[in-house]
Design a protein that fits this description.
Substrate binds at residues 72, 85, 99-100. This is 3-dehydroquinate dehydratase. The record marks 18 as: Transition state stabilizer. This protein has 146 residues and is an alpha/beta fold. It has one domain (4-143): Rossmann fold (3-Layer(aba) Sandwich), CATH 3.40.50.9100. Helix content is 36%, strand content 16%. It has helices spanning 20-23, 28-39, 52-65, 81-88, 129-143, and strands at residues 4-8, 44-48, 68-72, 94-98, 120-123. The protein has a five-stranded parallel sheet with strand order 2-1-3-4-5, sandwiched between helices. Helix 2 runs parallel beside helix 5 (129-143) and helix 3 (52-65) runs parallel beside helix 4. It is globular and about 40 Å long.
Amino acid sequence: MKPIYVLNGPNLNRLGKREPEIYGTTTLAEVEAWCREAAGDRPVEFRQTNSEERLIDWVHEAIDEGDGIIINPAAFTFTSIALLDALKMFKGPIIEFHISNVHRREPIYHRSYVSMTATTVMAGLGAEGYPLAVKALEMLIMKQRW
């Protein structure tokens, strides 16, 4: 069984402290524990970076090693064509995940490059949505619905 990759972009290391009125008070460590629990026996590669280069390298790793990707690219969602190009090479399901409902926010957050290749998008469920994304990704992998 190949791992799933849960990849988190810039500033998500500050989860729990950064704009709690938008992102809540849950920490990234708590999110990781929830994801691992939701995955059961399936291995999880859970990572966070503030670097676009590192995030792209991890997508490349997932291309070679993973069954699925959950990606919260944060600000790179709206700026990174390079990330889009990397994700387009992945042959499995991709869930684009956002803690907040980006469509209820400022217009700068309304155009996602990642959505152009993602299998599905989950947004606005809060940090508690991560384990739901893990379960949804598992369903997509098992049903090969991507």
